[in-house]
Amino acid sequence: MKIISNGNLQEVDINSGWLDGQGIFETIKTVNNLPYALGRHLDRAQNAALHFGIELPDRDVINSCVGKLLKAEPHSSGVLRISFADDSRWLMVHLAYEAPTEAAEIRIHPECVDGAVFKRFPYTQRIAILKDARAAGFDDALTFNESGNICEGSVTNFIAKVGEEWITPPTSDGLLPGILRQLLIENNLVKERSIHRSEVSDISSAFLLSSLRMAQSIAAIDGRALHLSHAYAEQIHALAVKYSVG
User: Fold this and answer.
1) Which of 102, 175, 191, 236 could form an SS bridge with 152, CB 3.0 to 4.6 Å?
2) Coil, strand, or helix at residue 66?
3) How confident is the model at residue 66 (pLDDT cuts 50, 70, 90)?
4) pLDDT cut 70: percent of the chain above it
5) CATH code matching the domain that covers 104-242, chosen among 3.20.10.10, 3.40.50.150, 3.40.50.960, 3.40.50.2000
6) How far is CA 84 from CA 89, 112, 154, 211, in A?
7) Where do the structural domains in the chain lie, given as residue ranges?
8) In DSSP terms, which residues pair with 203 in a beta bridge?
């Protein structure tokens, strides 16, 4: 496969899509080799880089490399992952990806988590939460902080309908400020407020949000069935497409 390593297009036999060591990363959906909301992802990466003292390549260089890689390693449905290591190495890969089409059966993760507002690798803790949920017969898990408030899914944001309102936890509860989540907030499709563990039984509908999955309906939480809000899902997908390129 072809990758971009430190700005250079290379051919490699096997690549996991991750750099060794530690750093920040962005995961971007591509459709017909067009990246969704690339500018927003790079803005978020820049904020993280400033926080951790990482020097990123010039934005024009990154954009040029994105175009070069998507042309050299095309996929009709893909994931573009851009990683920036703490020591200034960087990597860009484009992999095939198919989003899940079925509603998710999720569980409540049995342990409290320490949330983070930046996407850092290695991503082992979050992947472990997802693997544990699947090993237990679920598709994903819902995480909580030490205050008993919902954070997010294992690798996704979370939105829920409680009463007549669609709400999502605030970043102060320990969660990544996802790109799609922010678009929903900006367009008044969801409000921010904490959701305590005691309110889980009041949730009537819910979604897992991510740049890759977009909006995956949640069929049940710990076996309790939820209503599938198809009309709301269509609104989310339309909004994602509206802001897809750029």
Assistant:
1) 175
2) helix
3) very high
4) 98
5) 3.20.10.10
6) 6, 28, 22, 19
7) 2-96, 104-242
8) 162
| HSE of 183, CA atoms in CB hemisphere, 13 A | 22
What number is the average pLDDT over the span 205-221?
95
Task: Find the distance separating the first CA and the last CA of the chain, reported in whole Å.
Answer: 26
Q: What b/e sequence results for 32-42 when a residue is b if at least 16 CB atoms lie within 10 Å of its CB, and e otherwise? A: ebebbbbebbb
CB neighbours of 235 closer than 8 A, spacing ≥ 6? 189
pLDDT tens sequence across 101-115: 999 999 999 999 987
2-96 sits in which CATH class? alpha beta
Q: Which residue has the tokens 């998507």?
A: 70
State the Rg of the chain over Cα: 18
Tell me the average pLDDT across 212-219.
Answer: 94
Q: What is the pLDDT of residue 210?
A: 94
How confident is residue 116, by pLDDT bands cut at 50, 70 and 90? confident
